[in-house]
Amino acid sequence: MSVVSSEPEFEQARKELVSTLENSSLFEKNPEFKKALEVASIPERIIQFRVMWENDKGECQVNKGYRVQFNSALGPYKGGLRFHPTVNLSILKFLGFEQMFKNALTGLNMGGGKGGADFDPKGKTDNEIRKFCVAFMRELSKHIGADTDVPAGDIGVSGREIGWLFGTYRAERNRWEGVLTGKGASWGGSLIRPEATGYGLVYYVDLMIQYASGGKESFKDKRVSISGSGNVAQYAALKVIELGGTVISLSDSKGALIATDKGFTPEDIEKIAALKVARKALTALEAHSFKYVEGARPWKEVEKVDIALPCATQNEVSGDEAQALIDCGAKFIAEGSNMGCTQEAIDCFEADRKAKKAEAIWYAPGKAANAGGVAVSGLEMAQNSQRLKWTSEEVDAKLKGIMKACFENCLETAKEYVTPAEGEFPSLVAGANIAGFSKVAAAMKDQGDWW
């Protein structure tokens, strides 16, 4: 199957999956799955529309809106909405493609999709952002529903925007239903949802640490480098600190903030959250205990690190940065962002895993490690369907259980289809790709999507 060359992000995501499947025994044991791959690589539906809205000067503005409904074999399309000037079909197809397999790994009944617009919230007033949300949902509402497609937030779409989008959907369709996740806690949202991606990432890595150390180690006293400073990075940092680790970096689009003393505190994270709400740069936090490195990502700026958690955006760890992390002593890296590592970086980590065995760095892909966010979105859908609200403790316990099952699934699948050498950690990227793809492919076959 040919992939459009003008879709580099999607092509990268698909090639990464295909290379893993082809280098395993999956197609040898299940040759018919090759046809499933061809079918699953094409979205079921792509919706593209114009969004016309009025700025505060009364001027007509227009943006491109999208929804890529990739696969619904396992349940309603599920995936976030991204408002960012870089949004295009390639990025949304890559995100929807990854989302399909990520959702499969949660064990919940959710298909895969992604959407958004090339709208830039930065520099816009609250009123302008609200007007855009209303205009965007007026069109999107024709194509979604609680049993059809359930979007969530993503970059540029926080709980505030979800509120405006939900209110517009309710008015347009005259129905209150669980059509969006990430809603306010008093009107259908789930507790732990804002924290879920960051918390789930840390829970997954904790399981990696326990497995690698035979249960002798944890996050306690580990130096952890995190990129990003949004929702995922903030809650990952807070959970790392809670578990006894030291967070030594965060970052934003303009540079990296490196701790030069004892690491970030919960109070520092609270200040960063306030800066993000105010759309201010991390330079405002630069003080005697922090160093801001303009134009840099954290990976080459930290002198010693045990764990790396990229939590910003796609392709934020390059091949040479991967080697720098290995040289700094990193033993674990897991993606809080989607496709956070380039293929060169993944190849570097996997080569190290094979060469150094138990002394190597161990890599976990985003489709497994950051599945906690969509997992709790699935739990929010379940609560909405039952008109129930679970406690924070209940949701957190379910999240931990889902991440544990996901890790064990990736681990056992890797052992089955890519047998590790003596003393070698199983390939979690192979395990995640094969387990997620196999579940989607089997469901599609049962439903007659391929034969």
Automatic annotation (TrEMBL):
Checking PANTHER family in the record gives: NADP-SPECIFIC GLUTAMATE DEHYDROGENASE 1-RELATED (PTHR43571:SF1)
Q: Which GO terms describe its biological process?
A: glutamate biosynthetic process
Q: Where does substrate bind?
A: K78, Q99, K102, G153, S377
Q: Which GO terms describe its cellular component?
A: cytosol
NADP in keyword set: yes
- Report keywords, A-Z: NAD, NADP, Nucleotide-binding, Oxidoreductase
Which reaction equations make up its catalytic activity? Answer: L-glutamate + NADP(+) + H2O = 2-oxoglutarate + NH4(+) + NADPH + H(+)
Q: Which family does it belong to?
A: Belongs to the Glu/Leu/Phe/Val dehydrogenases family.
Keyword flag Flavoprotein: no
User: What's the protein name?
Assistant: Glutamate dehydrogenase
Ranges for domain Glutamate/phenylalanine/leucine/valine/L-tryptophan dehydrogenase C-terminal: 190-448
